[in-house]
């Protein structure tokens, strides 16, 4: 069922959204079946905070604190490999195979350590003309991904060859979402990648947002992106809205955006999610004039996951 939801979402985006890649659009309805996928991968992301997953040598069941990951707990999901405190930036997460939903999942942890926060604060931009003309990306995010990319490329390609029929999903919350997005769009994985990010910050300038949108956004050349934001979460908009940053560096959001409008600690229904197209679309999170850090920690559930670790 989940596999068909992923395929439907990609086809839906390709058929209905090409005309809205650059121009802002009114809200659209959520595709059937996508809500469950959004919740499931938010739980995979929350589980990226759990040491039993990111310290796993492989072969262990994907674990989460009781009550935090109800959908994930019902799956036959096994950690294939964990990775932790990869420098620079203490990059942490795990790769898992889900035999219930027949997917491979690469999940990245969000900001938890001093090293994570140092990377977040390295918001000056670096040019990457070999990727796309005029593209500039966040220095900290880019070099954090670059340092771990070859390690993950080999592992993910290896397991993709074993589970050939399993779609590949990248997911992450906050900093983890930025790393998942860069990995999905910058590398050749030998297959399309479906990307689920939750409360992820902007990655780079308009040129890079345009490139990303065309590569793994609405057009789905390399895959399909589900970029989820929540009400007035400050993280997805801070790089373009902070005056101390924006006066030196221009940041843009990608398209599409799946904006959760329900309050914190409230179950999310399909009617609570608005779908917006257009780079820097001001109809969703980017257009909110207030900020609530608690909104950053609630995406279908508590994104703290293993809060004591």
From TrEMBL:
<dbReference type="GO" id="GO:0045493">
    <property type="term" value="P:xylan catabolic process"/>
</dbReference>
<dbReference type="InterPro" id="IPR051299">
    <property type="entry name" value="AB_hydrolase_lip/est"/>
</dbReference>
<feature type="domain" description="Fungal lipase-type">
    <location>
        <begin position="105"/>
        <end position="240"/>
    </location>
</feature>
<keyword id="KW-0719">Serine esterase</keyword>
<dbReference type="GO" id="GO:0030600">
    <property type="term" value="F:feruloyl esterase activity"/>
</dbReference>
<dbReference type="GO" id="GO:0006629">
    <property type="term" value="P:lipid metabolic process"/>
</dbReference>
<dbReference type="InterPro" id="IPR002921">
    <property type="entry name" value="Fungal_lipase-type"/>
</dbReference>
<dbReference type="Pfam" id="PF01764">
    <property type="entry name" value="Lipase_3"/>
</dbReference>
<protein>
    <recommendedName>
        <fullName>feruloyl esterase</fullName>
        <ecNumber>3.1.1.73</ecNumber>
    </recommendedName>
</protein>
<keyword id="KW-0858">Xylan degradation</keyword>
<keyword id="KW-0378">Hydrolase</keyword>
<keyword id="KW-0624">Polysaccharide degradation</keyword>
<keyword id="KW-0119">Carbohydrate metabolism</keyword>
<comment type="similarity">
    <text>Belongs to the AB hydrolase superfamily. FaeA family.</text>
</comment>
<keyword id="KW-0732">Signal</keyword>
<dbReference type="InterPro" id="IPR029058">
    <property type="entry name" value="AB_hydrolase_fold"/>
</dbReference>
<feature type="signal peptide">
    <location>
        <begin position="1"/>
        <end position="17"/>
    </location>
</feature>
